[in-house]
Amino acid sequence: MTPSSSWLADEPMSPQQILFSFQGRIPRRTWWLYGVLGLLGAGLLGHTLLRVAGVSEEKADDLINLLLTWPALAVSVKRWHDRDKSGWWVLVNAVPVIGMVWTLIENGMLRGTSGNNRFGEDLSERL
Q: Do the beta carbons of residue 84 and residue 25 sit within 8 Å?
C-alpha cells in the first residue's frame, strides 16, 4: 500500500457488501475496522447528532441500535464464515458475558480458515 492510497481501496469487498450482505467471508482486520471501530464510530456520531437535535437519550439509543443491527449482524456473520462456522454462531452473543468474550476471541483474535472454505475464498490473502 502506497502512502497516497487509502485502506478502503485495498479492501477485497465494497463497504456495501461488508455492511449489508450476509454472503462471503471477511478477515480479522475488516471485522475490527468495520464491525468494531466503524460501527462504534457511527453509533457515537448518530447518538450525538440525535441528542443535539433534541431526541431523548433513550430514544436515541433505541434508534441507533435499530439502525446498526443489520450491519453488525452482516459483519459478524461473515467473520463466523471466515472461521468456517455457520452464521448462526452470532447467537452466542445472547449468552451473557461468555458470549461476548467468546465472540471477541473467535472473531477478533483467531485467524480464519486458510484457503477456501464452504463460504468462499480466503480474502486475507488478497490484503
A: no
Distances (CA, A) of 31 to 60, 80, 107, 112: 25, 10, 7, 11
The model's pTM is 0.86
CA 54 from chain center: how many Å? 29
Which residues have a Cβ under 8 Å from the Cβ of 52 and sit 6 or more positions away? none
CB 22 within 8 A of CB 78: yes
CA neighbor of 8 nearest in space, from 23, 30, 28, 27: 30
Q: Where are the domains of the chain?
A: 25-108
Q: Which amino acid is at 86?
A: S
pLDDT 10s digit of each residue in the chain, 127 long?
444 445 555 667 899 999 999 999 999 999 999 999 999 999 999 999 999 999 999 999 999 999 999 999 999 999 999 999 999 999 999 999 999 999 999 999 999 999 999 999 998 877 6
| Torsion from C-alpha of 17, 26, 24, 78, nearest 10 degrees | -90
> Based on the number of CB atoms within 10 Å of its own CB, is 25 exposed (0-12), middle (13-18) or buried (19 or more)?
buried
